[in-house]
Design brief:
Helix content is 44%, strand content 16%. The chain is an alpha+beta fold and 123 residues long. A 3-stranded antiparallel beta sheet has the order 3-5-4. The radius of gyration is 16 Å and the shape is elongated.
Length: 123
């Protein structure tokens, strides 16, 4: 159901637009969308996928972090912040939320995950 990033993003966008017709969201010209969590100011979107990278995981966090930094991503264990990646299963999400569109945030996550998968397949 959720394996196609573009389709998931489309459903999310459609749902948000429907909700917004009934309940307006708070936003600020400079800060973007206002939420309860300050780390989500801006687009408010945290696009994430779970991806299994056992070969990369065996090589330590350095290669993962290098790609994460290149695409401004956050890599954590599949159980969320401060969790370990059991069996090489990681939660990868966009780190940036301000100064870019929702599409750009999702695209950075997608491009970074694609690069991680490429690296995994070459090992």
């Amino acid at each position: 159901m959720g394996g196609h990033v573009g389709e998931v993003f489309g459903r999310l966008k459609e749902g948000v637009e429907k909700i917004e017709t009934k309940i307006p969201f708070s936003s600020d010209e400079r800060l973007g969308m206002l939420t309860f969590c300050p780390t989500n100011l801006g687009t408010t979107i945290r696009a994430s996928v779970h991806v299994k990278l056992p070969k990369l995981a065996a090589g330590g966090q350095e290669p993962l972090q290098a790609v994460a930094d290149q695409f401004q991503l956050q890599v954590r264990g599949s159980a969320g912040e401060h969790s370990e990646a059991k069996g090489g299963l990681y939660d990868v999400s966009n780190r940036e939320r301000m100064g870019l569109s929702e599409f750009e945030a999702v695209k950075k996550m997608y491009d970074g995950v694609r690069e991680l998968i490429r690296m995994e397949s070459e090992l």
